[in-house]
């Protein structure tokens, strides 16, 4: 038998089988074409990349156990919230142009509208870290922390010392760190925490024999919950580079975070406990120690919904919420993201909003940390500019904020970028605040950032070298893998 011929036949069968799997499993046309082209033109590399990054584990056996646990826990949490009269969707006025968004978030993510909250914007690490340190020092019963990136640097060690001190004094301290994003602390800071009474676990530990899927499905959330009453959410990880006051940080870092007090904290607590029960050897139960009854009614209360999504979700709830918010805006919609590979639906929503007379502005980095991601993002600019969308490149430093603000009455702050990875692969969480005061403040900050930005104009944009435009279009074909 001709072994070379046999090997060639087997090789062709494998290629055909992979191509058929891509066609069968991949849900969007863009992704399907990208992986088909990759496997056809560079078969071995293409097959490796597809099985590493292309298979969607949503509702897969990888997370079946977590899905069941989360659903059981969710029923208990919602029952408790309803007993506290926190499910307030019935009171939403039909003429509120974001009423549809509120109801859709509840339908897709079962997240109730909470109405007894205070919310404070924290701009950059200079505002976030002092607020976090103060809140941690005042913890009485428990501290729950969940982060994608936690570094063993000055700010990381400052928080570490508080956590250890609290654990020694009898406060329950739990710490989830992403095993990829926080790989540098596995044998250092995380070990020290465990040795001093802090319960610390990695989320979805990376193992060599299972390298593909762990690298792909990461916990990008940034959550702190203190005593079930105070919480933090947003784009700022635990690292000195997020603070411009740090001597280490030579690049100006622009980011946004949110401090919440009140009923919305219960939803973040629910998300943390679901993640904790998945990755740790301790199973927390739903009780009043973690979900205390509200102690106060805030004078200037704010309506808040928390949205989470990830491979364990039935639907991409954050993606749906962003699309719906763009569609619902009547006067203006301002978006900030460090990574812009949004897919056709968000692009169409932005175009239609602009063509309908809504002022649409997009702020993205002028300085990028990824050549291919930046090139893919630029491939969308021409069609947006032609629809009247205003695009700005932030020049003062690197903008890492993930925010949306509409009509000075809706603000969204969270961890999700406007890209495939955040919508399809990562575990993410966003807060939606329906409040004129906070949305107005976020709008003012956006407009302030535009002063440090350069607007892209159609004429000069179209005059870019042809080879640059070609690279951008090629990068766009690869965008589902970025």
Q: Please, could you describe this protein's structure?
A:
The protein is of the alpha/beta class and 482 residues long. Helices cover 45% and strands 19% of the residues. The protein has three domains: 3-54, no CATH class; 61-85 and 118-299, Endonuclease Chain A (Endonuclease, Chain A); 317-481, Endonuclease Chain A (Endonuclease, Chain A, 2-Layer Sandwich), CATH 3.30.870.10. It has 18 helices and 19 strands. Strands 9-18-16-15-10-12-13-19 form an eight-stranded mixed β-sheet, sandwiched between helices. A seven-stranded mixed β-sheet has the order 1-8-6-5-2-3-4, sandwiched between helices. Strand 3, helix 8 (189-195) and strand 4 form a beta-alpha-beta unit. The longest helix is centred in the first third of the chain and has 23 residues, at 3-25.
What value does the average pLDDT take?
88
Remind me, CATH topology of the largest domain? Endonuclease, Chain A
| Total domain count | 3
CATH class of the largest domain: Alpha Beta
Helix count, DSSP H or I runs of 4 or more residues: 18
CATH architecture of the largest domain: 2-Layer Sandwich
The name of the CATH superfamily of the largest domain reads Endonuclease Chain A
Query: Quick one: how many beta strands?
Result: 19
Helical content band? 40-55%
Determine the strand fraction and express it as a percent band.
Answer: 15-25%
């Amino acid at each position: 038998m001709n072994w070379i011929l046999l090997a060639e036949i087997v090789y062709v069968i494998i290629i055909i089988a992979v191509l058929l799997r891509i066609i069968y499993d991949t849900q969007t046309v863009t992704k399907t074409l990208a992986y088909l082209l990759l496997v056809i033109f560079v078969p071995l590399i293409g097959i490796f990349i597809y099985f590493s990054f292309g298979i969607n584990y949503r509702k897969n056996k990888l997370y079946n156990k977590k899905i069941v646990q989360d659903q059981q826990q969710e029923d208990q949490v919602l029952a408790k919230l309803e007993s506290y009269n926190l499910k307030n969707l019935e009171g939403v006025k039909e003429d509120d142009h974001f009423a549809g968004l509120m109801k859709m978030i509840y339908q897709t993510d079962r997240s109730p509208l909470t109405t007894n909250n205070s919310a404070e914007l924290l701009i950059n690490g200079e505002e976030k870290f002092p607020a976090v340190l103060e809140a941690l020092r005042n913890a009485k019963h428990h501290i729950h922390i969940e982060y994608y990136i936690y570094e063993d640097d000055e700010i990381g060690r400052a928080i570490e010392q508080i956590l250890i001190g609290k654990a020694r004094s009898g406060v329950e301290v739990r710490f989830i760190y992403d095993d990829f994003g926080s790989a540098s602390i596995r044998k250092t800071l995380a070990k020290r925490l465990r040795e001093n009474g802090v319960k610390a676990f990695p989320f979805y530990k990376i193992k060599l024999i299972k390298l593909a899927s762990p690298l792909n499905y990461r916990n990008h959330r940034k959550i702190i919950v203190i005593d079930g009453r105070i919480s933090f959410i947003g784009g700022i990880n635990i690292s000195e580079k997020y603070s411009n006051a740090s001597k280490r940080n030579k690049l100006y870092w622009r980011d946004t975070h949110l401090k919440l007090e009140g009923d919305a904290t219960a939803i973040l607590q629910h998300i943390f406990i679901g993640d904790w029960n998945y990755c740790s050897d301790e199973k927390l139960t739903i009780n009043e120690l973690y979900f205390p009854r509200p102690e106060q009614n805030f004078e200037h209360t704010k309506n808040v919904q928390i949205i989470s999504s990830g491979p364990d979700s039935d639907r991409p709830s954050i993606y749906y919420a962003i699309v719906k918010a763009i569609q619902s805006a009547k006067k203006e919609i301002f978006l900030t993201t460090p990574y812009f590979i949004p897919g056709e639906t968000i692009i169409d929503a932005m175009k239609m909003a602009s063509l309908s007379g809504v002022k649409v502005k997009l702020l993205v980095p002028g300085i990028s940390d990824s050549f291919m991601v930046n090139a893919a993002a630029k491939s969308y600019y021409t069609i947006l500019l032609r629809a009247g969308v205003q695009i700005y490149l932030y020049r003062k430093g690197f903008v890492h904020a993930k925010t949306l603000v509409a009509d000075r009455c809706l603000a969204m702050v969270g961890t999700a970028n406007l890209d495939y990875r955040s919508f399809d692969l990562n575990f993410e969480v966003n807060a939606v605040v329906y409040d004129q005061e906070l949305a107005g403040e976020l709008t003012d900050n956006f407009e302030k950032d535009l002063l440090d930005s350069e607007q892209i104009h159609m004429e000069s944009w179209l005059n870019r070298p042809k080879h640059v435009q070609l690279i951008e279009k090629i990068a766009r074909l690869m965008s589902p893998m970025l």
